[in-house]
Design goal:
This protein has 212 residues and is mostly helical. Helices cover 54% and strands 12% of the residues. A three-stranded antiparallel β-sheet has the order 1-3-2.
Length: 212
């Protein structure tokens, strides 16, 4: 528990310093002016309306400015690459990840075998995951990176075609489990504007297993 508390506290301190540094840079920009209280109030309203008041938060993950920059980056990719080929969702089946549950139990001084984990109830599994969200999230992130490297971006497999670029965002469900929403662009993928419906359908059938 102490280690997890340290991680969150360290993140808080790092983000607080990042905000302070960004504010310091932002306040030094522009011309120095002598303003009345009424003029300051009007400028604050303008800052809120144009998002200039939070523009310095672009580096702070989760802030409105961060996601606004992410949006413009994504729009730039669409402008350069065209509409994305695939919209992919990767969900965590963490309740069935024996290795994750075993490691979290081991961190609590419990040594569980695969058979013992197999017979854990749903409540016991969720209790284990909730007891250490840091380990659960890190395991999920590790699996996502390995899946990208060895499956989706593997030049020998190319299960969805030759992916030339991608963008994804990790969100957390109400029960706390993470999932990925991803846009992927595939080289020479057919489009509805430049190809026939039969060609598009053949591309989808070739890359998507309808039985899964």
């Amino acid at each position: 528990m102490l280690f997890r508390s340290y991680i969150f506290y360290a993140q808080y301190r790092c983000e607080a310093k990042e905000i302070q540094d960004s504010m310091s840079v932002g306040l030094r920009k522009g011309k120095q002016q002598n303003l009345t209280a009424h003029q300051v109030k009007e400028k604050v309203s303008d800052f809120i309306r144009t998002d200039l008041g939070v523009h310095f938060l672009q580096k702070i993950r989760g802030s409105p400015a961060f996601y606004n920059k992410l949006l413009y980056d994504l729009l730039g990719m669409i402008r350069q690459l065209g509409p994305c080929t695939w919209f992919i969702t990767l969900s965590a089946t963490d309740l069935k990840w024996t290795d994750t549950l075993k490691i979290i139990a081991n961190q609590q001084g419990k040594s569980l075998t695969d058979d013992e984990i197999e017979h854990l109830s749903w409540e016991e599994r969720t209790s284990l995951l909730r007891s250490n969200p840091v380990t659960a999230a890190r395991h999920f992130n590790n699996r996502v990176q390995l899946f990208l490297k060895h499956i989706l971006l593997n030049q020998h497999l190319q299960p969805l075609g030759h992916i030339i670029d991608y963008k994804y965002r990790i969100e957390f469900q109400q029960r706390g489990s993470p999932h990925v929403h991803m846009l992927a662009w595939v080289k020479d993928a057919p489009t509805f504007e430049g190809n026939t419906e039969a060609e598009v359908q053949a591309f989808v059938d070739r890359n998507v297993d309808r039985k899964s």
